[in-house]
Specification:
heterodimer, B: Glutaredoxin, eight-stranded mixed sheet, about 25% strand
Chain lengths: ~130, ~200
């Protein structure tokens, strides 16, 4: 019974088309980040590696809600400014980013999940990311 | 609740979670009409006061009314700059007559080697309308800071090179930084975005 349920569940997860009301992966610099950094807090908002997926989560969106300009990923954002970068090719992109200790940020854009296993993997990764 | 009842019920909950995954919402910038990354709101492009490759003062204000493609690099660059500049030259050719309203401006990160004459010769090998800019170390560092551009000198034996930002800014006819095109985009992508901006 449990095994049958698991098979049905995997089938549903693997074959149900992925519909997303947004393709955005959003990162935001909260107000007060600069002040925290000045106090020695090593705030890191943008990870060294960001994973995107073509067709379902392929737009990087950055917002600076702080009171000062911030280097955020590939660009400089003024207070209150946002940046929206779409990707239309699966590849690995490297950007110089002085906000990271390594001096760079990597964005991996994976192909659109078309196979059942790819859909299952995408959904699990999204779920885990959402629970973090 | 029995073990048999918990199994299917648990599986049902997991399936609901997974199938609904990807339905996250959040604030987003709406205009997605460009291939490049869009700024919202756009900001005024910081003015330049450098020496142009034509020997005259280089100011962005002189190109008001045109769409400006602003890139940073250096003439000895062997990896990024030749590809970017060739891409921009091809894009201009693809635009045809509309290219008259597109100005490429290339700011050096290497004032030690890139004087106006060298910039002019180098840029002319791609497109004779391209304009270069140079200045003192301090002037160029200030420009880079105002645009969020990085350039790090790497000493290699007797010589040196630079690790530098590889993107190109798209500045509209009104002098606003509208978008940032990452390195590696095709001439067709530039033509797409330039066509949108030129129609405004």
């Amino acid at each position: 019974m449990v095994a049958a349920g698991a098979v049905v569940a995997l089938g549903v997860v693997g074959f149900t088309p992925i519909h997303s009301i947004t393709r955005d992966r959003i990162f935001e610099i909260p107000k007060g980040t600069w002040a925290r950094r000045m106090l020695g807090d090593k705030v890191q908002i943008l990870p060294d590696h960001i994973r995107l997926t073509l067709g379902v989560r392929d737009i990087l969106v950055l917002h600076n809600h702080d009171d000062v300009p911030q280097i955020f990923g590939p660009t400089l954002l003024m207070p209150g400014q946002g940046f929206r970068l779409p990707f239309d090719r699966a590849a690995e992109y490297t950007f110089a980013c002085t906000a990271h200790a390594s001096g760079q940020m990597t964005i991996v854009v994976e192909p659109n999940p078309t196979t059942p296993w790819a859909k299952i993997r995408f959904r699990i990764v999204e779920l885990l990311g959402g629970l973090r | 609740m029995s073990q048999m009842a918990r199994g299917p019920a648990g599986a049902f909950v997991v399936v609901l979670f997974l199938v609904s995954t990807g339905v996250a919402s959040g604030a987003s910038i709406t205009n997605a009409s460009l291939k490049a990354g869009l700024f919202d709101p756009p900001r005024k492009a910081p003015e330049l006061s450098l020496v142009g490759s034509n020997g005259r003062e280089l100011q962005l204000g002189a190109f008001r009314g045109k769409v400006v493609l602003l890139a940073f690099g250096y003439t000895s660059c062997t990896a990024v700059c030749p590809i970017t500049l060739n891409t921009l030259a091809v894009a201009r050719r693809m635009l045809g007559a509309a290219a008259a309203d597109v100005q490429v401006v290339y700011i050096t990160v290497d004032p030690g080697r890139d004087d106006p004459a060298r910039l002019k010769k180098y840029l002319g090998s791609f497109d004779r309308t391209f304009v270069g800019g140079t200045g003192t170390e301090q002037q160029l560092a200030a420009v880079r800071k105002s645009y969020g551009v990085s350039a790090e000198k790497q000493v290699l034996g007797d010589g040196y090179s630079y690790e530098h930002s590889s993107f190109t800014y798209l500045i509209d006819r009104g002098g606003l930084i509208r978008a940032l095109m990452p390195y590696g985009h095709s001439p067709a992508d530039y033509v797409h975005d330039l066509t949108v901006l030129l129609k405004e």
